[in-house]
């Protein structure tokens, strides 16, 4: 081996120090590949839900998601297609002998509901959802979303978790793992099932997957309170308080003896949150404090449509949870099939007009009131509202039926509130509403954009699991910067 001279040693040392300085400056400017290293939240096991900083300045602090289970038709709600109306009853061009999820397709079929210009923007929205249509100027529409599956369970999984398979963390779990919550007396993540029941993929929609179990969504609604929250019969409040205080002192003493036991600290934190929830959840769920005017605005006092009234109470509960600082609230409209296809959700295969005529009013007034109420209370300044469904529906009716089949090739979602432009329309489907053709976007892009609005880099928010750096957007996704305010 050749030995270096003193001069060479000094030259190499100077060059090395210069390289370190250049690398440091490049890192600060975000120009190094190493800047793509994971950014995992630093979580204190004794305070797993403590509020944490985002990767960069967020545009919104909370998310309120309205999920229409069953695949709500874009053709009959928000995606206006005059050519579809003009060519009603004709074959879909270039799609002879087309087979989709349930089989052969019939002819192009216009919506049974008329579309009208809404708001100052003149956005065309269907008479199926007229009250939501009145709020078109508040909305940022995504008309070019595409999915990966045409099956409901995997489709719900994909929209909620970024994967079609079971076992992956939901978006709410990712967000609360990353950011915690601002209210330590309530769950960081609440899922509110439809009054008719849970969606087809059930708890997968709000599950933690491989993230710590603490970040699973807590599910309850206005009609069904949180389970196992009340004291057992025969135990009075004072006995319960003293028992919890004694248990707390024992847990703390044990933790002092084993300070490195993070699982014990997490269990203690979970039990203590449950104890606080005995007071906070009944309070936030008590809608009797709402004014008669508010109940009327939402339709919660509707004696003719009990399902709409029940969903309206869920929407009021959602607003109250956001008001109290809950990070992620997920409201479901539609449940798993009960009584046949499309009876309890938006899966309108065979009798779309008849079934949607029932679903539309349930969704429309309460959801529109929720957006209005959030705005008038100033909650939209920090809250992103997301309306979505698992995929869209065909512009044709199925052969021999009066409904639309599944269509993941082009469907609609919208956002409102903090972080997005409004009124604004992004992307488009073809002239019939069949396939996304302009600014085609994936669900991965949709998720990446939501995370970005919350101040999170979707490529760097990862969790190491089974040898893979997992993330909500898998290895895909781009932030749709055009929609950002």
TrEMBL record:
Pfam families documented for this protein: DUF1501 (PF07394)
InterPro entries cross-referenced by the UniProt entry: Alkaline_phosphatase_core_sf, DUF1501, TAT_signal
PROSITE patterns the record matches: TAT
Membrane-crossing segments per the record: none
PANTHER family, per the entry: BLL7424 PROTEIN, DUF1501 DOMAIN-CONTAINING PROTEIN
Name of the featured protein: Sulfatase
